[in-house]
Hints:
iron; disordered C terminus; binds protoporphyrin IX containing FE
Amino acid sequence: EENGKQNSTGQNGTSTNGTGTNGQQTLTTRQGHPVTDNQNIRTIGNRGPATMENYHFIEKISHFDRERIPERVVHARGAGAHGVFEAYGTVGGEPIAKYTRAKLFQQKGKETPVFVRFSTVGHGGHSPETLRDPRGFAVKFYTEDGNWDLVGNNLKIFFIRDAMKFPDLIHSQKPDPITHIQSGERIFDFICNTPEATHMATFLFSPWGIPANYRQMQGSGVNTYKWVNADGEAVLVKYHWEPLKQGIRNLTQAEAEAIQAKNFNHATQDLYEAIKKGDYPEWELCVQILSDDEHPELDFDPLDDTKLWPKEQFPFLPVGKMTLNRNPEDYFNEVEQSAFGTGVLVDGLDFSDDKMLQGRTFSYSDTQRYRVGPNYLQLPINAPKNQVITNQRGGQMSFKTDFAPSQNKHINYEPSTLNIIKEAPKAGKDYTPRYEANLVRQKIDRTNDFKQAGETYRNFEDWERDDLINNLVNTLATCDKRIQDKMIANFTLADEDYGRRVAEGLRKTAKSQDDKGPNGATSPAAGVKEAQEVSH
Ligand code: HEM
């Protein structure tokens, strides 16, 4: 009887799926059946047991039971927005074609649609956005030659330089596998035994480790890439996003705590509201360029992502501007299911031999085949906006095949005489680097783990250095003495004053704990006060 009523006229006497006289729309199941009762399951009698054939209810609940997919193993918390990238056509006063043939950069004013996802790294999907953590800055360019993903962070360097270490680094920063609580001791246990991480720790524990929001931060590709021109010649490049009108702003630990007490979604909210009211954030994309060789004259290896390429030596050259001007319509479809990867390059852009980049390039698409599914590239957010013609068909959740207008739809292989689908002509000479070396497992030669950490420490403003020392002392105070000693030694190698201030801060904290006796653990707030006294 109920079904009969549904199929003839809807609740307001409208056609089943149509618009009612008062502008209402009819709610339907995912099978398109109009829903006449969304409040009560079907039961035998008013108080009786439910029946098995409650199709609408079982569909509703079983879909709900599956509404989450595995969250990203890192960068789980994020916010996204759509926008546009506008090319300048030049780099450092020269036509950009001298360095890269990538089409999106060539003409001044050429626009490419983009989607950006910002994120924090360590904690889960709804964790506070005030935490000390690098911030992700991942950009998908939907170019005429297919997609280019520039998967970056706000900070310009990283903790490690070899992809082999990434799972260990992340395990040390994720919650303890037993208590499920993040532990400063576990973080510094890894860092003190990883001297190349001293530089990143210096940024991370300073205010640069808590950007004020996603709009007011920089972005960087971190790893070294290559550009290739029409003659097949390459240069090394690093990418940087510099915020334009909105500027850069970071928070002290105390400022972050004040925000967190009231709002743990402040960065997502800030981005969404700015775009909603038309205050579109903008970034300029800059590159640093080096010739494609080993650069023995430098005291660091240009393929080492724990190092900055000094700005004075290798200037930031603007190549275009990005504006974010549209919020997502559905968070899950667009932000959660978006999938970025360092392997996703277009013609004219290439990889370098940076060992982190090589490892990352395997990892991203691998995790996405699991996290989103093997057909993640069919989803609108991930699909390129140019025509896709592929012979890779099937697989879970496959729902479409793109055909060229007059192609033979029976042919899902290549080469073929029966089909018109052929390989593309080359856009320029191939870049073919030559290798001659033994196959080894080795660290790079120019490790130079501490010099730039010291420079970064000295380059900070006073308030940034003070906050850095406070934050380090507060966290290291919770660590085993052996970890403290190793960290002090590493900071001292970076800069004597740096090591001395951390050591003094720790001595004071230990003394105040002794004064209180074994049960009088200092509160974090007391620790901050102690360290501030030390630093002035
Ligand atoms: C996300 C691996 C280093 C930036 C991810 C994800 C994995 C991963 C598995 C989750 C991706 C997904 O579920 O879609 C690695 C490995 C690294 C590494 C193995 C080192 C060997 C880095 C570095 C950066 C970075 C150096 C900064 C340049 C990001 C960003 C995301 C991400 C921004 C989030 C992308 C998004 O918003 O969806 N990484 N990562 N990662 N990684 Fe890495």
